[in-house]
What does this fold into?
Amino acid sequence: MLSTQQVHDLNAPFTADHDFTLAHLGEQLDRRGGPGAAEVVAQLRRFQVAVPSWALGTGGTRFGRFPGGGEPRTLDEKIADVALLHQLNGSSDAISLHIPWDIPTDVAAVRQQLAAAGLRIDSVNSNTFQDQPDQPASYKFGSLASTEAHVRAQAVQHNLDCIAYGQQLGARVHTVWLADGANFPGQQHFRRAYQRAQESLTAIYEALPADWTLLVEYKPYEPNFYSMVIPDWGTSLALCQSLGQQAQVLVDLGHHLPNTNIEQIVARLQHFGRLGGFHFNGSLYGDDDLTTGSTKPFQLFLIFNELVDSAQDAAVHNPAVAYMIDASHNTKDPLEDLLQSTDNILTAYAKALLVNRPALQAAQEANDAALAEDLLRDAFLTDVRPLVAEAYRQGGGALRPVAAYRQAAQRAALTQQRGRRAVSTGL
Ligand SMILES: [Mn+2]
It folds into this structure.
C-alpha cells in the first residue's frame, strides 16, 4: 500500500496538464448542454467493478504459464493486491472469489482485512469444471447435468458450500457457470441434460438466502465443443424464469460467438428485468480473456449506452447489476491489466453518459438513422480521459494509475516480499 502523501507526490507531475484538459472539456460539455463534467465525474465515482481473485496472478493456457513474480499465494495476499488497485483507482472496492481456490481459513481475520481496506466480497463462484484432490466423484462427464445422481449431488453440495463460505464473508451473489456439455453428436440427450441441470439448479436455488442473487452464466462452447447445456442467454433466461425472482442472467462478454450483438442482448435482458451480472473482458474470437475494451471499444460503449439508457428509463425494472471483471492471461502484469480494464470500463461508461438521449430518442422516432448514429459518434469520439482521471483523483487515487503503479515500483516490492516464484492459485 502507498501513503496518501505518496499518491499525492505521484500525481504532482500530471496535475497542471490534468487541470487544463479538465477545464477545457468542462467548457465543451457546458456548451453542448448535456450532462456537465461534475455530474459525469460523480457518476463515475459511484461505479465500482469487482476484481476476480483469479486475475491477480498470470493466467495459463494449455501450452504453458509464465509467472511474473510476486503473485499472491493466499487469500490475504489477494486482498492486499485488490486494496492496492482500489487505492490507485477508487473503483475496485469488491472481490469475486472462486471456491475452492479461495476458501478462507480465518474468517474473522479476512473480514477485518477487508474492512480496513474498504473492500467487500461481492460474489462467490463455484467450480465444477475441474476435479479437486480428495473429491470422490469426477466431473469428467458433467456436474449439475451429469447422468449420475451421485455426481449431481456432489456438485449441488459444492454450490451450497460456496454459498456458506460467501455468507461468512458477507457476499450476496452466487455465480454458476456450467462446463457441462458434449464433445460429440449423440453423446448427450439435449432435453434430459437440460432437465437435470434445471433440477440441480432448483436444489441450489432453494438453499439461497433471501437477500442473495443466483447468477446463471452461459457460454456457447468450450470446454465442450459440440454442445453446451447452457449455451446462450435464452437458455439462461429460461432457467432463471423457472427458478424464481432471485435468479438472474450473467452476461460474460467473451461468451458469445464472434459478431454477436451483445448490446441488444443486454437491452433484452433488462427489458425482462433479468440482467443480474456482467463479466467484463475483451474478446476477438471467443473466450479470449483480453483486457476489457482493448479490441472493441465501440462495442463496449454501445453496451454501456444500453445500461445507461435502461438506468434512466422509469419503465425498466431491472435490479442492480453486479459488475465484475473476468479475465486472466499470461502476458501483462496482472495488476496493470486490471487497472487498464477498469480504466476502459469507466471510459466507456463516461462516454455513454454523454449521449444526448432526448435527441437520440427523437431521431429514432423519426427514423433518422444518420442523425441517430451521429449522436452516438459525438459521445464516443469525445475524449473523456480527464473525467475518468478526475474521478480517480477525487477518490484519493492516482491521476494515472498504471504510471503511478510503475513509478512506485509496486511489482518489485511484491516480488521482494513474496518471491520470484510465487504462483497464485487459480487457472
Ligand atoms: Mn465469466
About this structure: The mean pLDDT is 96. The two ends are 26 Å apart (CA to CA). DSSP finds 15 helices and ten strands in the chain.
